[in-house]
Amino acid sequence: MQSITDQGHIFLAFEAVYSQQMIQDKEALVLRIKQLKKEKDVVILSHYYMPAELQFELTDGGFVDFVGDSLGLSVQASKTEATNILFCGVKFMAETALLVNEGKQVYMPDPSAGCSLASSISAEDIRGLKKQYPGVPVMGYINTYAETKTELDICCTSRNAVAVAASLEGDKIIFVPDVYMGENLQKVIKKELGKDLILWNGSCEVHEQFRNFLPQMAADEGAELLFHWEVPEDITGIMETGRKGIVGSTGDILKYVQQSDAKRFYLASECDLSVALMKENADKEFVTPCVKCPYMKQNTLEKLLDALEAIGTPNESAYRVALDKNVIDAAKKPVLRMLECSN
After folding, report:
1. Are residues 81 and 37 in the same domain?
2. CB-count exposure of residue 7 (10 Å: 0-12, 13-18, 19+)
3. pLDDT tens digit string along 85-102?
4. What digits encode the pLDDT tens for the residues 13-28?
5. What mean pLDDT do residues 122-126 have?
6. Is residue 190 part of a domain?
7. Residue 261, in any domain of the structure
């Protein structure tokens, strides 16, 4: 990895090198984690935005069972026989895992890890929107807390949002909470479905920072652009100048890079997505301002081990994700409706 200084900003150029050195350096911790996950019947899930040391899967010599996006990980866990789930992510992700894994216990290395986007809207806010726009269906991004989901008509992910929108009646949809994702989706949904989105002014504090680096993106003409749906529209608009790249979900970005003949890419998403990109594309280079989510980075190898140690002891409640049964029953409905729509 090499640093690039450009107009006072530090960029990171990730060369196509994927090393297990960090795992080797913490071999004792890794061995203990492997032992405990087996003893305590635990499946370990890790989001793409986790620190690199929490993205090494079993096949890489690590201890993680699945690396992926939030909903995909929850669904993967439901297909295993493990009775306990340890989710390396943020709170709304672990809550979703609890919703779709009935009868299983869900734990987090740091249960205080929140999300600026999920915190930008509440169930009360949605009730207010319903009064303001009676009869208009509410489609909520999966990046919301369980209590907020209790008021949604249906959930969506960045990958299936257009398909979910197509399943709803009427020519208007309330989309919450990400205003930038909504603005980007509106272009596609209006063109393909003829529907308008009513947006809420929420945002991810990580993705909105990329507007600070627009001049560098525009100047790096040799790189193809990788934009998440959550990046502001005034940045993704650069694609309309003829630049090659993609605006889409994390899965869309990974697929695009694999299929592209380009050798250099500019990544406008959470920095540690570079780990998966480098792993799957060893012959390609990725450049990013390396904006990191502080909440995701609350998860560490040491905290993960502490959580494993606690499972089955009086201290496990400090790591367990708990929701009221009424919240679970209500929040599960829009998630299951989305899954039915996506199948």
Report:
1. yes
2. exposed
3. 999 999 999 999 999 999
4. 444 334 556 667 788 8
5. 98
6. yes
7. yes
CB 106 within 8 A of CB 85: yes
What's the rounded Cα separation, in Å, for the pair 122 and 264? 40
pLDDT at 22: 65
Q: Kindly report the pTM of this predicted structure.
A: 0.91
DSSP 276-313: HHHHH-TT-EEEE-----TTGGG--HHHHHHHHHHTTS
Token pair listed for 263:
């050798």
- Token pair belonging to 124: 């009360």
Report the alpha-carbon distance of residue 95 to residue 70 in Å, rounded: 10
Instruction: Assign residue 213 the CATH number of its domain.
Output: 3.40.50.10800
- Cα angle value 34/36/42 (rounded, 5°): 90
What pLDDT is attached to residue 178?
Answer: 98
What is the C-alpha separation between 342 and 94, in angstroms, rounded? Answer: 21
By residue range, what is the domain housing residue 269? 207-288
Q: pLDDT by residue (tens digit) across 25-36? A: 788 888 999 999
Q: How far apart are the first and last CA of the chain?
A: 40
CA-to-CA distance for 91 and 114, rounded, in angstroms?
A: 5
* 3 state SS of 245: strand
- Which SS3 state, helix, strand or coil, does residue 227 take? strand
Domain count, the chain: 3
Non-local CB neighbours of 94 within 8 Å, separated by 6+ positions? 85, 87, 106, 107, 108, 111, 321
232-255 core/surface letters (b: 16 or more CB in 10 A; e: else): bbebbebeeeeeebbbbbbebbbe
